[in-house]
């Protein structure tokens, strides 16, 4: 999800690039918007995109193109605004899965938190197409630190085979 830095702080998202933290903070924010706009999905989506201070009841929504696209995808992939039954993809097995139950959920949450890449080495070998931002995604090292450690000059082009220091 995409959260502005101030919104992330407001909803206690400390690691914005961490999928679990980002998604859970974003859903808390969407829940807040749903309450603020009394469950009006159109206003909620518009406020998520334009900022909650820019959407007021009774006023024109300026980002209706965006809102229509999001609501169309919402209805296509799971929202039941029309009341028509959705396609049943596949019936779930009634047998309990290995990770079922409260402790299983906690294990799954912990496992998803641990999926954030951790640096296991002090060096990174650049592959074709890698950018500084891609190195950050793969290693978890902030871009500014990668640039500083390797004394990279703007526009920060990386060469295939180049070795970057990470620590």
Write up this protein.
The chain is mainly α and 167 residues long. Among the domains are: 73 residues, no CATH class; 43 residues, LysM domain (Membrane-bound Lytic Murein Transglycosylase D, Chain A), CATH 3.10.350. The radius of gyration is 21 Å and the shape is elongated. The chain has a two-stranded antiparallel sheet.
Topology:
Layout: H1 5-10, H2 19-36, H3 41-50, H4 64-77, H5 102-113, E1 123-125, H6 132-139, H7 143-149, E2 163-165
Antiparallel strand pairs: 1-2
Largest beta-sheet characterization? 2 strands, antiparallel
Helix and strand content put the structural class at mainly alpha
Residue stretches low in confidence (pLDDT < 50, at least 5 long) are 82-100
User: What fraction of residues sit in β-strands?
Assistant: under 5%
Q: So what's the overall shape?
A: elongated
Number of strands: 2
Please give a handful of descriptors for the protein shown.
167 residues; mainly alpha; Membrane-bound Lytic Murein Transglycosylase D, Chain A; two-stranded antiparallel ribbon; 2 strands; elongated
């Amino acid at each position: 999800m995409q959260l502005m830095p101030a919104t992330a702080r407001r909803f206690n998202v400390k690691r914005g690039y961490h999928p679990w933290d980002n998604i859970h903070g974003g859903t808390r924010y969407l829940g807040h918007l749903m309450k603020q706009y009394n469950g009006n999905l159109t206003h909620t989506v518009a406020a998520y995109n334009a900022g909650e201070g820019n959407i007021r009841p009774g006023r024109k929504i300026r980002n209706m193109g965006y809102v229509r696209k999001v609501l169309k995808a919402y209805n296509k992939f799971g929202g039941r605004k029309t009341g028509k039954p959705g396609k049943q993809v596949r019936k779930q097995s009634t047998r309990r899965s290995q990770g079922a139950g409260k402790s299983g959920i906690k294990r799954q949450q912990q496992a998803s938190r641990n999926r954030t890449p951790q640096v296991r080495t002090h060096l990174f070998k650049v592959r074709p197409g890698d950018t500084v931002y891609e190195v950050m995604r793969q290693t978890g090292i902030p871009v500014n630190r990668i640039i500083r450690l390797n004394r990279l000059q703007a526009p920060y082009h990386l060469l295939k085979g180049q070795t970057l220091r990470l620590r």
